[in-house]
């Protein structure tokens, strides 16, 4: 281990302290070292004094081998500025991350899923784990993500149904346009074309209304697929640093207990008698791990707070956009169907009747008149063979000749007088 000396001048704050706590010293440890540097203190703001550094002199007075209480009193009675000479502890921090630290880190990861009795049996406290406000923030984040998943699923089903309705409207309009194309009457052609075009416009409006809503769903999907996993990964990294920091705290607590135990039985402890370098290394590692822990904790708290605010703001905007878009779509569709379209079915029938009369087709009155004439002929029918006279509406049978005795004479062209011809009405249709 390399040691580098440096003299640092510090000005006490209004409370008369420089902001460090010291440990070690006689009669057990040959050196006095910095145990902790308090936040926002003069030593913390200066940044050159770190945990594990050995204090060699105060204002030029050597304190090597002195008791820590005497060194603390010397700092308190010193006037500003206080000159502190230190031997810096220079070494790679990876040496402090021993197998024992890794095992303790794993224990802290497991203890969150244990009850209090099991955690106490392992020598771990769940207080700092269960009282972490970020744990509650993470639960809220998961609840928001689940809410967004249901919302996206609902919008997906709604878009699917709306698209089906739009397809039906489009198909309906195409059918009426096809009817218009095959319609000979101009008025009916125009009416069917207008009716089909209106349904096609409704289908277009319904399809266009889904565009802003799809952007909204994409924003929600980004929150689910990217924002939440990224935040969860950040929380995971924060917890990893937190468990490591707790592991160093637990390791130092065990080393302190070991020192107290050896002092109580008045036995020397080798690592303490040789300068307690292992303990000082753990102090340095704990300080740096705590700095990472506090920085990451602040970052995660700010990030989750921003996400909560964004969630409240965005969900209100999304729901308002959804309501406005659907209302606008309904109003536009109602506006399209506002003008009435009269399909001229009755006009076509009247034109068809006029066309049939102008073409010389016989009316019902003509048929009745022909039937009456046939009835008059039926009063004096002729005997003998009958001749069928057919018309479109009247069929009459006339006699071919008359019978006188056994001689049959023709009806027409004979010299003998004949009786008047008689008609026999057979059928009138």
TrEMBL record:
Instruction: Please describe what this protein does.
Output: Probable adapter protein that bind to and organize the subcellular localization of a variety of membrane proteins containing some PDZ recognition sequence. Involved in the clustering of various receptors, possibly by acting at the receptor internalization level. Plays a role in synaptic plasticity by regulating the trafficking and internalization of AMPA receptors. May be regulated upon PRKCA activation. May regulate ASIC1/ASIC3 channel.
| Quaternary assembly | Monomer and homodimer. Interacts with CXADR. Interacts presynaptically with the glutamate receptors GRIA2, GRIA3, GRIK3, isoform 3 of GRIA4, isoform A of GRM4, GRM7 and GRM8; with NAPA and NAPB; and with BTG2. The interaction with NAPA and NAPB disrupts the interaction with GRIA2, conducting to the internalization of GRIA2.
Q: Where is the AH domain?
A: 129-342
Q: Which PROSITE patterns match?
A: AH, PDZ
> Which BP terms from GO are recorded?
dendritic spine maintenance; intracellular protein transport; positive regulation of receptor internalization; receptor clustering; regulation of Arp2/3 complex-mediated actin nucleation
| Stretches the record annotates as Disordered | 398-429
What is this protein called in UniProt?
PRKCA-binding protein
Q: Report the SMART domains cross-referenced here.
A: Arfaptin, PDZ
Can you name a GO cellular component term? plasma membrane
Where does this one sit in the cell?
A: Cytoplasm, Cytoskeleton; Cytoplasm, Perinuclear region; Membrane; Postsynaptic density
- Residue spans of biased composition, Polar residues class: 399-411
Any idea which UniProt keywords this protein has? Actin-binding, Calcium, Cytoplasm, Cytoskeleton, Lipoprotein, Membrane, Metal-binding, Palmitate, Phosphoprotein, Synapse, Synaptosome, Zinc
Q: Which GO terms describe its molecular function?
A: actin binding; metal ion binding; phospholipid binding; protein domain specific binding; protein kinase C binding
What Pfam families would the database entry show? Arfaptin, PDZ
Q: Any keyword ATP-binding?
A: no
Indicate whether Calcium appears among the record's keywords: yes
Q: Where is the PDZ domain?
A: 7-90
| Membrane topology category | Lipid-anchor; Peripheral membrane protein
Q: Which InterPro entries match?
A: AH/BAR_dom_sf, AH_dom, Arfaptin_fam, PDZ, PDZ_sf, PICK1_BAR
Q: Mainly localized where? A: cytoplasm
